């Protein structure tokens, strides 16, 4: 979350628990042709520009990084002030990530030299007006995104979700409240870039929404209200049935929206009230998992319109994969459960190829490159597994800090943010 929002939901009492929820958020619809001031998108597969990488699937390209996870593979390390669960992004030779000092109530964006680990700059994006969150969440759980010109951040602050565009040299270009937000356990949904738009999902009691802002000006192009309820995942983009779609999971349903207008294309209901990860798409099949209070992993044929029914359900498994996002790789679907149990499914049938307890709890989402999967647990131990129908653990290792962020793999290097450090691992 996804950026990345990584925590286990438990129902804790909060001060507004007995108060009525606010009314639905005011919707906005595009009128006429949209004249955008957004810069062109100049990132490529050589970058890691947003949550889950260039193709939105946590698939890395290029040479394999080292499988030895430990001091022997560390090229450089940098201490990270404050706390954040967001995943770093990479643009050229620069890394960007968010963090928050929860004592002084400052949320910041940091920039590092990817070759040396030197800190280039630190920009306070918001100061004060922090909101309630779960102890296992952070005030900087949303992964930033870049179009190659600006860095975009999302923070929960001052009773809303605020989007900010920041120049590559660390200056605020614009800042806009995407919509109001009522926090139960915090926020962690990461921004999506689609053409000239910055897409923001914010599910909460009463006033949940999904919105699109112009990347150039911050003006709201469209905003669609969402069903009332608390979910914490990040949407994804896909082409389904020949149509570009925005896929969201939460509030007991999967929904496909038209990303240019925010209008609903299809929906599938009766899943789980709360989810905290990102759906995955392969062809016309959407893979999704949750959640709270019900557990599920499903494969859904999303080719269609309107209310989809059980005839669209390809397979279903009652397993808790709540916070880590699923990983689709060819014929296989990998599910790393919050409880530390990993399962490899046949992506087409849902049959189990293997099931293995790795140990510890999992919140980070796994990353795959070639025939290797890298998956950190919350204790900061990174597991390296072989892809395929037979379980094979190649290695595991631990560095300083807890592991709530997903590994970023580019050009044979692993960039991994723990609760205390940003690491670069690779051949020395």
From TrEMBL:
Residues 1-17 form the signal peptide. InterPro entries: PQQ_b-propeller_rpt, PQQ_rpt_dom, Quinoprotein_ADH-like_sf, WD40/YVTN_repeat-like_dom_sf. GO terms for molecular function: protein serine/threonine kinase activity. Keywords: Kinase, Serine/threonine-protein kinase, Signal, Transferase. Pfam families: PQQ_2. It comes from the Bacteria. Residues 145-334 form the Pyrrolo-quinoline quinone repeat domain. PANTHER family: CELL SURFACE PROTEIN (PTHR34512), OUTER MEMBRANE PROTEIN ASSEMBLY FACTOR BAMB (PTHR34512:SF30). This is Serine/threonine protein kinase. It comes from Blastopirellula marina.
